[in-house]
Predict the structure.
Amino acid sequence: MGQDNLVDSHPPRPLQMDSAHTDDKINKHILNRGAYRFWDTDAINQIVNPNDHKFIHGIHLSRYPGPDRIIWNYSVSGIYTVKSGYWLLTHDPGDNQVYPSIPHGSTTMKSKIWKLPFSLKLNIFDGVFYPRL
């Protein structure tokens, strides 16, 4: 629990916990009552830093537990897309790299060119490659 990035922040991070419980499994702190599952609030409040209580209690517990899976925090579906990767690249607050400004030219015209029925989606304007808008 203290190793997985459960806190939905930018960038995602692990919960701040009592060091004696960092190796606990998350399912150890879920209570089953009939067909419903709830967080063990008393245990969570004892081992998780108070600043992170809202994050763990904000995680919805499904009625039917499923296998663990990796979630990409930067897309609604939880699945990595090139668009979400590009967004992260251009919005990473810890990145001090200077990125080039938007290329010159009409974005409307470039958008129309991208929609033309070419077999390859590679368009070069004035000898410069422009990514799809």
About this structure: Residues 35 and 64 are 8 Å apart (CA to CA). The mean pLDDT is 77. The two ends are 39 Å apart (CA to CA).
